[in-house]
Write a structure and sequence with these properties.
Helix content is about 80%, strand content about 0%. It is mainly alpha-helical. Helix 3 (about 65-70) packs across helix 5 (about 100-125) and helix 3 packs across helix 9.
């Protein structure tokens, strides 16, 4: 495996990897907005909307035992190109008439197989000293993809653009919009094929399904049992579960509290993304891996900001609050994600650790999206949902902070009996 990168630089191919991830995620986020518009056009129930993300995420959980070994078994750049193609195939199936929920199962399968290779390649190319900074780049690219993807999706479903497609002869303007998104997947595939091979190789994994499942559960328990791995995994699992639910809650809140249509409400998601970019860039520059746990109070602040947002009904207050929520979220998730990747690579392997991470984070997304859909079906107000979510995340992160401080005291008393602590990480 390559040695650590230079103190002030990234290895060859790293920025191309970021660009490939950006275009792939850009297409995913634009497609989500188009699929929501398609469900509206088909007069499907409101609670079906979060099920799009549910179906997309389902593959992350089901394929978790196999995604890591598959990513480790071959050069990751080549695997990323193939799995990105699978996402494009899901979009083609949607264009040919497949139900949006079923199409998102196909797109999600491609994404689930893509993720361990993408994050694993980052861990293989970039050493521990630059891993937080590398994750800052990753989060900036991911959030910029959300920002521009939701803006592009909102633009493509806006009345003027759909009317323009009709004037150009399209009998199904939403389908014409989806063809534009298909081009973004093509750009991502081209970038993936030019990525370098890190040179990392792993022992051949078993091809027997029962063995893979058993090995996955052993790896899952091992990462949870590690003090640093378990802490960072708990935080990222909570963050992404709540974040996925809030992605739809903000759309619903903007419609009910501000009277925004879908095309305008999607722009408020982009406002949050701007904040995350700011937080990710800042934390990537001033928080080293060994001090990652010091950002945990940002999780409490994030939770407490959500009830404040739920009580706002003017855009002039909403926009700065959404930016602040994004900043706090970026400050929290970048160091925690880097810490989790580092411990996972040390304990397991790059691909396997990312598969474990994906399983837990996406299981959280499934549970919370399912609960959110159930609350909508029960006609619970969006304000109540946001209050409950915010207080829950603040309380859970506060409990994790207490657990970390207790463990730190134990380490100071008996340091030889505990695994690496943050101060020992380089």
């Amino acid at each position: 495996m390559p040695s650590d990168t230079a103190e002030h630089g990234m290895p060859p191919g790293f920025h191309r990897l970021i660009a490939a991830q950006f275009f792939s995620a850009l297409a995913d986020n634009a497609l989500l907005i188009l699929a929501i518009a398609l469900l509206h056009a088909q007069s499907e129930p409101l609670w079906w909307v979060p099920l799009l993300k549910f179906c997309f995420t389902l593959a992350y959980v089901v394929l978790a035992p196999f995604a890591g070994p598959l990513a480790d078994a071959r050069p990751k750049a080549r695997w990323m190109a193939w799995t990105n193609g699978l996402k494009a195939l899901g979009l083609v199936a949607l264009l040919l008439g497949l139900h949006p929920l079923a199409a998102f199962v196909v797109v999600g399968t491609g994404a689930a197989l893509y993720a361990p290779a993408k994050y694993g390649l980052v861990t293989e190319l970039v050493g521990p000293r630059r891993l937080v900074a590398a994750n800052g780049w990753i989060e900036v690219a991911a959030v910029m993809a959300v920002l521009l993807g939701t803006l592009i999706g909102g633009l493509l479903v806006s009345v003027p653009v759909l009317d323009a497609f009709r004037r150009l002869g399209s009998g199904q303007p939403l389908h014409a919009a989806m063809v534009c998104v298909l081009g973004l997947y093509g750009v991502a595939a081209a970038l993936n094929r030019g990525l370098p091979d890190s040179g990392a190789r792993y022992a051949a994994a078993s091809t027997r399904v029962p063995t893979l499942v058993r090995e996955f559960w052993v790896a899952n328990r091992q990462l949870w049992a590690d003090p640093l791995g378990g802490l960072s995994l708990a935080v990222t699992t909570l963050f992404w579960g709540v974040g996925a639910m809030m992605q739809f809650a903000v759309l619903r809140w903007a419609e009910s509290a501000l009277g925004y249509p879908l095309s305008a409400a999607s722009q408020l998601q982009a406002v949050v993304a701007v904040g995350v970019v700011v937080g990710a860039v800042a934390v990537g520059n001033w928080v080293p891996l060994g001090r990652a746990v010091r950002v945990l109070p940002a999780g409490v602040a994030l939770g407490l900001l959500l009830p404040v947002l739920a009580s706002v009904n003017t855009v002039w207050l909403a926009v700065p609050l959404l930016v602040l929520i994004g900043v706090v979220g970026g400050v929290l998730v970048v160091p925690m994600n880097a810490l989790l990747q580092h411990r996972g690579a040390v304990l397991l392997s790059a691909g396997r650790s990312i598969a474990v991470q994906n399983f837990n984070e996406n299981l959280s997304i499934l549970v919370l999206l399912g609960g959110y859909a159930a609350l909508l079906a029960a006609d619970l107000s969006i304000t109540t949902v946001m209050w409950l979510s915010g207080l829950a995340i603040a309380g859970l992160v506060a409990a994790l902070i207490g657990r970390e401080r207790l463990l730190a005291r134990q380490v100071r008393q008996t340091p030889q009996s505990h695994p690496a602590r943050p101060s020992q990480l380089q």
